[in-house]
C-alpha cells in the first residue's frame, strides 16, 4: 500500500495496464485532500484530460465514495459541481486486539468511528476467537446493506500479504487463523497488520499534515510494550519475514525496572513502556513509605498532569529513556519526522522539551533536526490503525 504523493502524481500517470486504477486513485486522493473540488480543478491540477476526469468522477460517485455538494463559484459560464468524500455511512470494520482490551468499531470513509464496542482481552485463544467471531458477525449482519471490509491490528508478527498471524508474543499465541475464520463467517475480506505498522500507516494517511507529507518517518508506539513502525518512501518497511522495526527490543541498558515481554531486562521496552513507568511510580511510593492503590496508566498520567511529584518523576524518567531510544533511531535512520503515539502523549507538554533535548544530541552537524511530534490519532491509535488498513487500501496506489 503506497500513499500517492500528489506533488509527484503527474509522473505516475503512465503504465497502460494499471493506468485506469492509478488515475482513479489519484482523482480520489485529490478529492480527499483538496475538497471541495470541481472536475475542472482536478483536471487542471492532475493534467488528466477533462473527459477522463469526468468518467472517473461519475464512477466514484456511483460507487458511493464521493458526493457532489452543490455549486462552487465560476469565472464565467455554468457554476461547477463541487465534490467531497462521502462520510457518515459505514465502509470499514476495525478490530483492534491489545493485551488488555479488544475493540471492534465501525467507521466511515473519513475514519470517523460511527459505533464501537470494547471488551476485555483474555489470554485464552479459543475464547478470544469466538468472542471476536460472534461480535464481528453481529456487526456485519446489522449493516449487511453496506459494502464493508475489515481491518485488524494485532500486537504480533504478521504476514499481511497472506493474512496470517504467526505469533502474538504477549500471550504466546501461535498461527492464529482468526482472519480466515472471520472471512468464512462474514464473507468479508480481512486485512491484518502488526499494530505498530498499522498505526504508522494510519499516521501516513490520517495524521498531521507534517506527517502525511513526509515520505520517511518513524512512529514510536508507547503502550504495554514499545512498537515502532518505519515508513520509508511512503510505504511500511517490513524487513525479512515482516519482523523489521522491532526496536522495542534493542538493548538500552542492563538494569531495567521491569522485564521486557521477551523476558530480558535489557530492552528499550523494559525502560520506556507504560509498564516501566508504572513500576518506577510504585518504587517511588515505596521509597517514601506510601501505599500504592492499584494505579493504572491513565491514573498515573493524570496524576502527573496534576503535579503529583511521584507520578511526575516516573513520567520524566521514562521520557528520558524514551528520548535515548529515539536518539538511536535518529542516528540510524535519519527520518524527517519521529511521531510518538500512545496514552503518554496526553502529557506531551510535560516531557517534550526533555525528549527534544536528548534526541537532538544525535543530529549530525549541518543536517536539519528531525521533527519530533505527538500523534494526532488520539487515545486509541491502534484502533485507527485497524480502520486505516481498509481506508488506505481504497486510497492507495495499485503500485
Ligand atoms: Zn525484549
Task: Write a structural description.
The chain is α/β, with parallel strands linked by helices and 399 residues long. It folds into 3 domains: 9-85, Arc Repressor Mutant, subunit A (Orthogonal Bundle); 92-200 and 383-395, Nucleotidyltransferase, domain 5, CATH 3.30.420; 214-376, Nucleotidyltransferase, domain 5 (2-Layer Sandwich). Helix content is 41%, strand content 20%. The protein has helices at 9-12, 19-34, 39-46, 50-62, 125-142, 178-186, 195-206, 209-212, 268-272, 274-287, 297-305, 309-333, 348-360, 381-395; strands at 37-38, 66-71, 81-85, 92-97, 101-107, 113-120, 149-154, 157-159, 164-168, 173-176, 190-194, 217-222, 226-232, 235-236, 337-341, 371-374. Strands 6-5-4-7-11 form a 5-stranded mixed sheet, with helices on both faces. It has a 5-stranded mixed sheet with strand order 14-13-12-15-16, with helices on both faces. Strands 1-3-2 form a 3-stranded antiparallel sheet. α3 crosses α4 (50-62) and α7 packs across α14. The chain is globular. 43% of the residues are buried.
Short description:
With 399 residues, the protein is α/β, with parallel strands linked by helices. It is built from 14 helices and 16 strands. About 1% of the residues have low confidence.
Here the CATH topology of the largest domain equals Nucleotidyltransferase, domain 5
> Got a strand count?
16
Largest sheet: 5 strands, mixed
Unreliable spans are 13-17
Strand order of the largest sheet: 6-5-4-7-11
Helical percentage: 40-55%
Give the DSSP E fraction (strand runs of 2 or more residues).
15-25%
Amino acid at each position: 500500500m503506497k500513499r500517492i504523493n500528489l506533488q509527484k502524481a503527474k509522473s505516475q500517470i503512465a503504465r497502460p495496464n494499471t493506468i485506469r486504477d492509478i488515475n482513479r486513485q489519484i482523482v480520489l486522493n485529490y478529492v480527499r485532500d483538496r475538497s471541495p473540488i470541481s472536475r475542472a480543478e482536478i483536471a487542471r491540477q492532475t493534467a488528466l484530460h477533462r473527459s477522463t476526469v469526468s468518467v472517473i468522477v461519475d464512477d466514484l460517485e456511483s460507487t458511493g465514495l464521493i458526493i457532489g455538494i452543490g455549486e462552487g463559484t465560476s469565472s464565467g459560464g455554468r457554476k461547477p459541481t463541487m465534490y467531497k468524500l462521502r462520510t457518515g455511512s459505514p465502509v470499514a470494520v476495525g478490530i483492534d486486539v491489545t493485551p488488555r482490551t479488544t475493540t471492534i468499531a465501525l467507521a466511515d470513509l473519513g475514519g470517523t468511528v460511527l459505533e464501537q464496542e470494547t471488551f476485555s482481552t483474555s489470554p485464552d485463544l479459543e475464547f478470544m476467537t469466538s468472542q471476536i467471531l460472534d461480535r464481528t458477525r453481529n456487526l456485519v449482519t446489522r449493516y449487511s446493506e453496506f459494502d464493508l471490509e475489515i481491518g485488524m491490528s494485532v500486537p504480533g508478527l504478521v504476514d499481511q500479504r497472506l493474512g496470517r498471524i504467526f505469533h502474538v508474543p504477549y500471550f504466546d499465541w501461535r498461527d492464529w487463523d482468526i482472519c480466515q475464520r472471520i472471512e468464512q463467517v462474514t464473507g468479508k475480506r480481512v486485512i491484518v497488520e502488526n499494530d505498530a505498522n498499522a498505526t504508522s500507516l494510519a499516521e501516513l494517511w490520517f495524521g498531521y499534515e507534517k506527517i502525511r507529507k513526509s515520505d520517511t518517518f518513524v512512529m514510536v508506539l508507547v503502550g504495554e510494550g514499545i512498537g515502532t513502525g518505519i515508513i520509508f518512501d511512503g510505504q511500511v518497511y517490513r524487513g525479512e519475514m515482516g519482523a523489521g522495526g522491532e526496536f522495542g527490543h534493542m538493548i538500552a541498558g542492563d538494569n531495567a525496572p521491569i522485564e521486557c515481554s521477551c523476558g530480558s531486562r535489557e530492552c528499550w521496552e523494559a525502560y520506556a513502556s507504560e509498564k516501566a513507568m508504572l513500576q518506577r511510580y510504585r518504587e517511588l511510593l515505596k521509597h517514601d513509605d506510601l501505599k500504592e492503590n492499584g494505579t493504572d496508566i491513565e491514573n498515573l498520567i493524570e496524576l502527573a498532569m496534576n503535579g503529583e511529584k511521584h507520578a511526575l518523576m516516573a513520567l520524566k524518567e521514562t521520557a528520558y529513556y524514551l528520548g535515548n531510544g529515539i536518539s538511536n533511531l535518529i542516528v540510524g535512520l535519519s527520518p524527517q519526522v519521529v511521531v510518538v503515539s500512545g496514552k503518554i502523549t496526553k502529557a506531551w507538554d510535560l516531557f517534550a522539551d526533555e525528549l527534544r533535548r536528548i534526541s537532538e544530541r544525535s543530529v549530525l552537524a549541518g543536517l536539519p533536526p528531525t521533527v519530533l511530534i505527538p500523534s494526532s490519532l488520539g487515545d486509541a491509535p491502534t484502533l485507527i490503525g485497524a480502520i486505516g488498513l481498509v481506508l488506505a487500501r481504497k486510497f492507495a496506489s495499485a503500485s
